[in-house]
Amino acid sequence: MPIIRVDNVSKTYRLGEQDVTALSDVSLIVDPGVFMAIAGPSGSGKSTLLNIMGCIDTASTGHVVIEGKDVSGQTPDQLANVRARTLGFIFQTFNLLPVLSARENVEYPLLQMPELGKAERHERVEFYLAKVGLRKYADHRPNQLSGGQRQRVAIARALVTHSKVVLADEPTANLDRKTGESILNLMRDINQTEGTSFVFSTHDKRVMNRADRLVRIEDGQINALGMKRDGTWVFVQDRRKPDDDPDI
Ligand code: ADP
Fold it and tell me: Is the terminal CB of the chain with fewer CB neighbours within 10 Å at N or C?
């Protein structure tokens, strides 16, 4: 069963007197264990799609099905529950709480899971801090950490709830190339060792090429769906137009 299914989703934002169509009839499936890139130029609808897949935003029309359950029409509380138990998030700007240490930031989502005792909470936090290589920095606050270290805290926070899929909006965009690569390596390692699915947006061809599934989006529409086979992309759908960005 797919973890996330997006069926014919469109999204229109009202901007003053105008309607802006951010997504138009988008359908895709996120299978367990994939390392998927959503690639497209700035303004193509990547963030909107990730936010709708992650139940942070809702579709204007169409359906989002998470682990077999249609989440359209669910209340904000129900959506928060789906987010907390199935999905993890990583943002371009890290979004850590500045007054909390790395350890407390990682622990934070577990405080909303009353079924977990203190010992289990502690064990999970230490496990994921070690997994992202930050045991020595557990007591540091975000402003005492580098960009790469902050993104590692965010990765540990996304995993600590045992998320099935981590949604990452341009996770390397604010990092230098080398640090960005180490973050992608870490995500890939977790994907392969723990089986966690990752869906990350990017407008960078190098980042896109690290994926094993590709959703290519332009002007709010999917124009190519690809799968990596023996290191090269095989497109199961390709409707790219001659004037689409050839680099992504
Ligand atoms: P990307 O992540 O690929 O840069 P976005 O999903 O952020 O693209 O944006 C897609 C389109 O939707 C753009 O035209 C953008 O201006 C518009 N848009 C996104 N969010 C809003 C919003 N909250 N209100 C109005 N327009 C928006």
Answer: N
